[in-house]
Amino acid sequence: MTQTESTPATTSSESSDDAILSVSDLHVSFKTDEGMVRAVRGVSFDVRAGETVAIVGESGSGKSVTNLAMMGLVPKPPGNVDSGKAMFGGRDLLTMSDRNLQDIRGRHIAMIFQDPMTALNPLMTVEQQLTEMTRLHLSLTRQEARKRAVEMLGLVGITAPEKRLRDYPHQFSGGMRQRVMIAMALSCEPELLIADEPTTALDVTIQAQIMELLADLQARKGTAIVLITHDLGVVAGVADRVLVMYAGRIVERADVRTLFANPQHPYTIGLLGSLPNIESNRDEPLAAIPGQPPDLSQPIVGCSFRDRCPHRFERCQTDDPVLTSRGALESEPHMAACHADLTNADAEHAEAQQ
Amino acid sequence: MSETQTNTDTPLLSVRDLKVHFPFRRGSLLNPQKGVIRAVDGISFDIARGETLGLVGESGCGKSTTARAIINLVSPTSGDVKVDGVSIAGMSDAAMLPYRRRVQMVFQDPFASLNPRMTVGGIIGEPLVVHSLARGRDRKLEVLRLMELVGLNPRFLNRYPHEFSGGQRQRIGIARALAVQPDLILCDEPVSALDVSIQAQIINLLMDLQQKLGLSYLFIAHDLAVVRHIATRVGVMYLGRIAELATAEELYAGPKHPYTEALLSAVPVPDPELAAKRQRIVLSGEVPSPDVYYPGCAFADRCPVKIERCLTDRPALPNKKHAAACWVREEDVQLDQRSV
Ligand SMILES: Nc1ncnc2c1ncn2[C@@H]1O[C@H](COP(=O)(O)OP(=O)(O)OP(=O)(O)O)[C@@H](O)[C@H]1O
Ligand SMILES: Nc1ncnc2c1ncn2[C@@H]1O[C@H](COP(=O)(O)OP(=O)(O)OP(=O)(O)O)[C@@H](O)[C@H]1O
Ligand code: SF4
Ligand SMILES: [Mg+2]
Ligand SMILES: [Mg+2]
């Protein structure tokens, strides 16, 4: 049942004490020729030790920028973190000095980038890149670091790792580069791992192997994982909780089972409805959400999804919906930012799926 | 149907016994090592007009290298690539030009494959300039049309690649490939950075263009549900070779090769209840290395159904509709004579 009292996205129904990362009301914008692009417009979430929080959502909705901002990696200019907090170990990552942030990056927080070449230097061998971190952060000797590099490459499924240490990134396939980056991120066993599309270039067997590797680290070290992915199969398999982003905001959040079984935001419903099925018929076009996301350089009035939404009504044109509770399940509240009450639309949705 | 279609019997693309080996020199001065990486090690397939061949397989098995060899971005070590019956291996750049228009590629890495110093308008319009297809206002209108087609806001015409998200960049690459109205597009993981809704839009677009214009695709992807939907036939690669080739229906309904079986069993299911119950075939054993020559089947060490022969004799891919290179699962397999 929908409760109508609204929970402002900025406060802390979610800020639990055991969170190792707590992001609140993050705003990030970019200066462009077309004006200020508001890429992230008030994002708040928590991540607890040992859990996996998945972030899914529309291409361009601000998933990468949210996480780059926490790591102090939004290019400034043209980018700017306008406001917000990202508390990690009692300190705010957003106001920390570059030096302190550098100490934390790699050692305590590691990131797997969506673009492998952000992390990999084309002029350095795979060995140099893999050993740099462990020598710096774990004070390993050259020998030890090399051994660790071989071990890590083996764990991410690179065959004959000793032989391939001397290769340069361009000598690796797309998926191999991605795995080198994963090996780099994991080699210092961070407390928080931010993985931005870590398996896009991996086949399903290696993907499963990598996911097991992450689960193992999580079990041993209590590592918290923020997993950004378009692969809803991976989300279903490994996430504890899911955040759905649209146009720079979180529009729905729930534990993973609730999200798949009972999505409440029309965007989430459309997204789940667009999934190709392994048994799907070639003759029928795939369902897709019609229309385009709003231009983030223009002010958004009302709901950002309204032009594409099958459930919209007058209020959606004028009022900006905030996250409201849709009933809590277990520990995780289920929230959606939508004026419509779709709790009873379930049956219709199920029918439409048939 | 395109006018260039001269002879309907010859396939649009024909790849025969293609090999791409990368020689390497590693090791130290005292302990030098030389060898070759057998990225692509003898593969053959055809793509007919209006057909989509899906290409799947383990990361590093040679899919991208195959596509790059087809457009001559890397030179094949041996073998032949024919477009409309004409061999393009060793062709001069000038002679290649018309083929470059007819065969386009969408590159795997949307970050590295776009020129960072060009605006989106420039990137998408460049092939129109190179092939003298449109100029001035016409070109701009065409670029705007293409942007709209792939779901990019035309207002972003003058932005640079780094101002876009991963999935937005991927769509710039697709728009660029479509610009010159090619006959064949080699799509290397073209939708991997897109959310499923935009992915559905792009796949519907590609299939729609295929219907209207008779386009053909080589479609490399790791998402087996996407391949199932878009491909008419599917090739499964393993360590530089094709392990199984079949129509999409047959392959998914009854995979023959044990590697295909393992691959299909590992497809993640978008349902947390089912995911928890899933059993996947976990492969154990040594993962083969592309710089080693294996006399037998490259999959043998990890194969759950191998027999003795698999370790010593290499099975050839039979020439039939649903073919697997496997001594156990395929009936009339021959010894692969060509490979050394
Ligand atoms: N340097 C920049 N200048 C201007 N706009 C930018 C810049 N970087 C990102 N953006 C914009 O910010 C928005 C959010 O981008 P972001 O990369 O976070 O998307 P995303 O959710 O990660 O998408 P994807 O799933 O496609 O990777 C996009 O609309 C993008 O165009
Ligand atoms: N320029 C190169 N020099 C040396 N080796 C290379 C080069 N390009 C590719 N390789 C090697 O060839 C093999 C096949 O690479 P390729 O990029 O074709 O794989 P892929 O099937 O596309 O993999 P992925 O799914 O990870 O993208 C890999 O072992 C790779 O390291
Ligand atoms: S608020 Fe209105 S327009 Fe927005 S998602 Fe809900 S029903 Fe649709
Ligand atoms: Mg991104
Ligand atoms: Mg590749």
UniProtKB/TrEMBL annotation, chain A:
One of its GO terms (molecular function) is ATP binding. Keywords: ATP-binding, Cell membrane, Membrane, Nucleotide-binding, Transport. InterPro entries: AAA+_ATPase (IPR003593), ABC_Ni/Peptide_Import (IPR050388), ABC_transporter-like_ATP-bd (IPR003439), ABC_transporter-like_CS (IPR017871), Oligopep_ABC_C (IPR013563), P-loop_NTPase (IPR027417). It is found in: Cell inner membrane. It comes from the Bacteria. It holds the Pfam family ABC_tran. Residues 21-272 form the ABC transporter domain. It is a peripheral membrane protein. This is ABC transporter ATP-binding protein. It comes from Aporhodopirellula aestuarii. The lineage of its organism: Bacteria, Pseudomonadati, Planctomycetota, Planctomycetia, Pirellulales.
From TrEMBL, chain B:
SUPFAM superfamilies: P-loop containing nucleoside triphosphate hydrolases (SSF52540). It comes from the Bacteria. Residues 15-264 form the ABC transporter domain. Keywords: ATP-binding, Nucleotide-binding, Transport. It holds the Pfam family oligo_HPY. GO terms for molecular function: ATP binding. The keyword Transcription does not apply. Belongs to the ABC transporter superfamily. NCBIfam families: oligo_HPY. This is ATP-binding cassette domain-containing protein. It comes from Aporhodopirellula aestuarii. The lineage of its organism: Bacteria, Pseudomonadati, Planctomycetota, Planctomycetia, Pirellulales.
